[in-house]
């Protein structure tokens, strides 16, 4: 049982490049979410999904897009990377929106 | 939206000491969790505790939902307890789980 898997673990982008951070879970969880964590700070919610085909914005959605075509996958897209998006990104899943959440190991993204 | 405040922001303990971490929240919640982020950045579930009291070894947690706070107790602290402890809540009827800023704990040998 892999739990929540994020890829890649590390990434360096140039300003203006696009990329997709992958998140997959094998626990048949309905609820998935993306957070970013900046140095010395807590996690801030970017986007979340309560099930396949349903997504919504969190606290800091600007500059990020998501989609949820399957229960298992919840990719996060950066359309035009900016240095302000340098951060560690965490994906989480839970059975439902108000049950115990499980986190992936994070993706450390640097935008130069 | 709901506000989450954790205290203290930083804590230094001698190995073997006990500590209490606090999480205050500004609205009624139907989800409250405590996490430990270890020095390698991994987030580990400690407790799912929207109300009541739970214990797991040297750790225990209590949430008093009517007074909008939760406490995490660490007894006989060990150096491996070092890291950041986060409280995360979702307001009643909401879908967004919001994190506090965390308590950074360092346990000295």
Question: What does this entry look like structurally?
Answer:
The complex is a heterodimer of chains A (112) and B (109). By secondary structure, chain A is mainly β. Chain A is 0% helix and 51% strand. Chain A has no helices and 11 strands. In chain A, the strands form 2 sheets. In chain A, strands 2, 4, 5, 6, 9, 10 and 11 form a 7-stranded mixed beta sheet that branches. In chain A, strands 1-3-8-7 form a 4-stranded antiparallel beta sheet, with no helix packed on it. In chain A, strand 4 and strand 5 form a beta hairpin. Chain A starts with a strand and ends with a strand. The model of chain A has no long low-confidence stretch (mean pLDDT 94). Chain B is mainly β and 109 residues long. Chain B has no helices and 11 strands. In chain B, a hairpin with a 5-residue loop joins strand 4 and strand 5. The N and C termini of chain B lie far apart (41 Å). At the A-B interface, strand 4, strand 5, strand 9 and strand 10 of A face strand 4, strand 5, strand 9 and strand 10 of B.
- Poorly predicted segments of chain A: none
The number of strands of chain A is 11
**Uncertain regions spanning at least 5 consecutive residues of chain B:** none
Reading the helices and strands of chain B in chain order gives EEEEEEEEEEE
Number of helices of chain A: 0
Shape of chain B: globular
Largest sheet of chain B: 6 strands, mixed
Q: For the report, how would you describe the main beta sheet of chain A?
A: 7 strands, mixed
What share of the residues of chain A does DSSP label as strand, in percent? over 45%
Biggest interface and its residues per chain?
A: A-B, 25 and 22 residues
Mean pLDDT of chain A: 94
Oligomer: heterodimer
Instruction: Provide the helix percentage of chain A.
Output: under 10%
Percent helix of chain B: under 10%
Order of helices and strands of chain A: EEEEEEEEEEE
Our Rg estimate of chain A from Cα atoms comes to 13 Å
State the secondary-structure class of chain B.
Answer: mainly beta
Number of strands of chain B: 11
């Amino acid at each position: 049982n892999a739990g929540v898997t994020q890829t890649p673990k590390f990434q360096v982008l140039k300003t203006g490049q696009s990329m997709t951070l992958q998140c997959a879970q094998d626990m048949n969880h309905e609820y998935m979410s993306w957070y970013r964590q900046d140095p010395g700070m807590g996690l801030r919610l970017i986007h979340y999904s309560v099930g396949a085909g349903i997504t919504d914005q969190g606290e800091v959605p600007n500059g990020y897009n998501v989609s949820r075509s399957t229960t298992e996958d919840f990719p996060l897209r950066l359309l035009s990377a900016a240095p302000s998006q340098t951060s560690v990104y965490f994906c989480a899943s839970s059975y439902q929106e108000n049950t115990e959440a499980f986190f992936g190991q994070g993706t450390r993204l640097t935008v130069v | 939206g709901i506000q989450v405040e954790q205290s203290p922001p930083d804590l230094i303990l001698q190995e073997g000491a006990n500590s209490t971490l606090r999480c205050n929240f500004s609205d009624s919640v139907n989800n409250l969790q405590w996490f430990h982020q270890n020095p390698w950045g991994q987030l580990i579930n400690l407790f799912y505790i929207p109300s009541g009291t739970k214990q797991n070894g040297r750790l225990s947690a209590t949430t008093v939902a009517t007074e909008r706070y939760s406490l995490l107790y660490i007894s006989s602290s060990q150096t491996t307890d070092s890291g950041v402890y986060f409280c995360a809540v979702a307001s009643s009827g909401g879908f967004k789980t919001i994190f506090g800023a965390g308590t950074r704990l360092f346990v000295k040998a």
